[in-house]
């Protein structure tokens, strides 16, 4: 079975059930399967073939999902890319994948045109939402086609090119690139389908659920953990355009969502909004995501539904879930599920005893449930899979009952005067201050060699807080070596569309004129947004 076969099977079982819900309306399983066939035939006529990549520079929409499943039906490899990419970052995705066919939303076309002279292999661009007349005024070496043509004819036969091997590539998802150049994770049909199946299983999803995701379709949360999880359960996937604090609950209610996921600071941003009479005016029965806040119990009391934590990554899948039937363990991100082995190892790859912190390693008990490779990067692939385990680059420990505890990214550590500091732990302390909306800790060069800790802070609307007051707060709650030396208040943190902080941008800025230094003679920096 392939991903497209999975859709066809569900369309036969529940043809009239709503599969996709967007701001443009509902699409049933039968309708989605029909669109998939038409789009597959159109893509085949434009050069998409078995095993060839199809890059999609598209915002969230039903059309993006149909394009994805159409590529799967052809045996092509779907490559959704970050819609914020421009310049060298966008060129990188095309060069890594060697794509000849691309699908792009009209409002994103200028980003592609700006670098199109550097895309030597690109032959065909389908433009969604463009004025057809404007498509004739493009470089003649590349064919530009109106995307609407894919759906304007009766359902045609699709060439029988679908792969019979479920371990064949279905899609590539790029790593976020928050700490370096992004890598294209090759994900098999089995990976994509099995991740959806496991997510539905361990969250207890049913056909009556509406799974709401406000994150982009170039991310695992929206693709396998929302669309494919809904497909497995015969449920509805409700896809928002983007996360918006002001519009979140309105969209939850308009989509009639029963489940949603959170990521990064999104839950904190929602929590720090003023309580209101509509806090329980919804049908949500659970939410899942990372990280789990200290005020989990207060959230559940205020909004009326439980929060569940998971642990996973695109490269390795989701390997740990908070059990539904027992209380979660404070600090844990869930229990390892039977479909995976997880170990914690030192820097040489030697397994560590339970309770000791080290790098989290993953090994599947089933074929195809971790990524196949980093496409076009054999050295990076070999490094990731050394010793027969997938090395995640994350730090954590396991307890004696197989609960996993996350301690941050290995590459996100800060080395200060002989001490290793977790940026994640510093951020948790700072974000516990009632005046702080979100924060990011980074290491900046120190005159004593190694690094000093800088914290970049976004305050809650209306909050007043000085750098000295924040440092005093941290000093009461953390070891002295973890207390930041530098503080800078920002109106917002630079982020990817999946709300991950782009720390490399903060590190590039370093210590600025706006940075407060507790070791220098300075006046308190007070900010009132």
Automatic annotation (TrEMBL):
Family indicated by similarity: Belongs to the ATP-dependent AMP-binding enzyme family.
Keyword set includes Ligase: yes
Keywords of this entry: Ligase
Protein name, UniProt field: Crotonobetaine/carnitine-CoA ligase
All residue ranges annotated as the AMP-binding enzyme C-terminal domain in the record: 425-500
Classification via Pfam families: AMP-binding (PF00501), AMP-binding_C (PF13193)
Top-level taxon of the source organism: Bacteria
Domain annotation AMP-dependent synthetase/ligase: ranges: 8-375
Biological processes per GO annotation: fatty acid metabolic process
InterPro entries, A to Z: AMP-bd_C, AMP-bd_C_sf, AMP-binding_CS, AMP-dep_synth/lig_dom, ANL_N_sf
GO molecular function: medium-chain fatty acid-CoA ligase activity
Coiled coil: none
